[in-house]
Specification:
Length: 232
Amino acid sequence: MSDSYLERREEIETYFDRTAAAAWQKLTSDAPVSGIRATVRAGRDRMRATLLSFLPADLRGARLLDAGCGTGALAVEAARRGADVTAVDISPTLIGIARERLPEKLGSGRIHFVAGDMLDKKHGKFDHVVAMDSLIHYSLPDMVGMLVRLSEMSLNGIHFTYAPKTPALAAMHFVGKMFPRSDRSPRIVPHATSALYKRISRDEALRDWSLGRNARVSSGFYISHAQELKRA
């Protein structure tokens, strides 16, 4: 991967593992939060449900990679459908929270939490890969490069999100610049859907993949777009 990807990944690790770990622990729980964060929580809940709707209802016998699993909510739901989930996040702190929240009973499914690089091929091959809001901080070339790496690990499909380039999201970024640097999350990089689709279609490494279902979730300060890639 490029130097820009590695630099950005280091920034994200620092933010989620140190700067904002407590805030993310609260946001991903049912604890009271501010009005702005409540819209983000609601949006993330809707996006998680959207991505799960792209997956088979019965995942028994399937291996699933939750790439950028955070505190593990999506991994738990996939395991409840019977999946054997490898849930990876760059933040050891968030992985620790995910392990603490792991329900005692998951039916026939199971989860293996890993703190590390979600693109590491040592995780193995999977029937499905899900990457919820874990690619949204990267430039278009780096993001597509990450999709290429994930495609090498997936047998059937990749279900990911990106930040769509919209006036509403641009306005939110402008407002965000008024906060002190220490309080800001790593910059989200919006992409025009047409530019993303063109880049994917022209990438030789993704020639065996085609665009599938997609859906946008907009909830106050949360705007994200779900996209499916499937083997052609």
